[in-house]
Amino acid sequence: MQLVFIYGQVAAGKLTVARELAELSGLALFHNHLVVDAVGSVFPFGSSPFVRLRESFWLSVFEEAARADTSLIFTFAPEPTVERTFPERARDVVAEAGGSTLFVALEVDPQVQEQRLLSPDRAAFGKMTSLPLFQSLRTDFASCFAQMPRPDLTIDTTRIEPRDAAVAIARRIGA
To answer: Molecular function (GO) terms listed (predicted)?
Structure first.
């Protein structure tokens, strides 16, 4: 089992690249907003129950997937409401069940990032679409990104097509 843990800043192209990778590899795609939206329908974003349940759900899915030998792609945006140690604990849960984790960092030029942030399709999963909000949180997001585990693969999505980024990841996982 392999967990392909794709992380990056807001609007770095995580879901777009992950969808391409899922199509190329046949791996299941576990987009983080599926859980964020489900838990957020009951508890306010960032509240103690929200944070606890979101992480519990993520880790439970990783553990069960590893036990079932079901590889998957996970998208993740490092941000202040997620415990700093979450990525390492995700890796450990997968490893304890016999799997491995590939950390893939997506980077993007800030100007391109701001343009992407305004794309109407971001609203489909309740993603951030407010440029002023993003700009006020940019430093916090950058700090969280800097605390992520060292990536096994880094891709700058500024000038590369999502399909090409997915191909690079697929080659790395042997898909």
So the answer is: kinase activity
Q: Are 2 and 101 in contact (CB under 8 A)?
A: yes
- Compute φ and ψ for 84, nearest 5 degrees: -55, -30
CATH, residue 136: 3.40.50.300
Give the residue numbers spanning the domain of 61: 2-173
4 touches 73 (CB < 8 A): yes
Q: Which of 88-92, 120-124, 161-165, 168-172 has the lowest mean pLDDT?
A: 120-124
3-class DSSP state of 157? coil
Domain count, the chain: 1
Nearest 5°: the CA angle 1, 108, 171 is 35
The β-bridge partners of 172 are none
What does the alpha-carbon distance between residue 157 and residue 134 come to, in Å, rounded to a whole number? 19
